[in-house]
Amino acid sequence: MERARGETGGRNGPRNGGDLDPSRGAEVLAGRLGTSPELLIVLGSGLSSLADALEDSVSLGFDEVPGFPEAGVAGHPGRYVAGRLEGRRVLIQQGRFHYYEGHGDAIVTAPTRMAAALGIDTVIHTNASGGIRGDLTPGTLLLVEDHLNLQGRTPLEGAVRSGEARFPDMSCPYDPELARIAEAAASHLGISLPRGCYGGVLGPNFETPAEVRMLKVLGAHVVGMSTVPEVIVARALGLRVLALSVVVNPASGLTPNPLSHEEVLEAGQMASGALLRLIREIVRRIPGVPQSG
Description:
By secondary structure, this protein is an alpha/beta fold.
């Protein structure tokens, strides 16, 4: 759940990324980082410390990738870091782009399409969210098993891109095998990892109490402002997705206290230790990814 800052443009305005070529971005990224990543890990607000755990790391700012703007949200460093984690070649994306910043579909989903162009077939998403279900208190890690797209748009609108399905199956947007691996990893580490449904809204304002009640009736257990468009494109490309949500505050109306982005960042940082341990164990357990080379 992130607030925007800085200049924005309309959906079809100067920040829609109409000239962005994910394949070209992939070439630049591969050349600069000098590695062939096996999986992508996307870090949300206040969750960037994982990049510090990489061995032999190399970094590249978003603004150095052709067509990418700088990250415009506090808590999003806006860079890629490649290196080794648990013996695996990984690419960490510190931050993401959001519709509420004024970005269009091409920018918001460019990192996902670029990952596919790099040959990556597995993506681990993390995000910060507000807890709706009573047991999802701040600091809780949630395994996202489904989502509600309440952002009023789809990133697949328009002409079909090469390699993408026109009508991707969304009956299982989050990979069941990766979910089982995550649960086994959490159990091994003694970390609670309940399952739940992520309600994706547009933002950047936090939700009203009435909207949170609506989300609860619709079946959302947490609410946030990201992830959903990236997952939709990932599924259209045939990528496997795992998503972990860090509950950083109770959703609006569930406590008498007003919400703030500073609270989001602080809670994300507090939960980052458990998230780091969990992701490391998940990466170690993912089968079929060579550990040499």
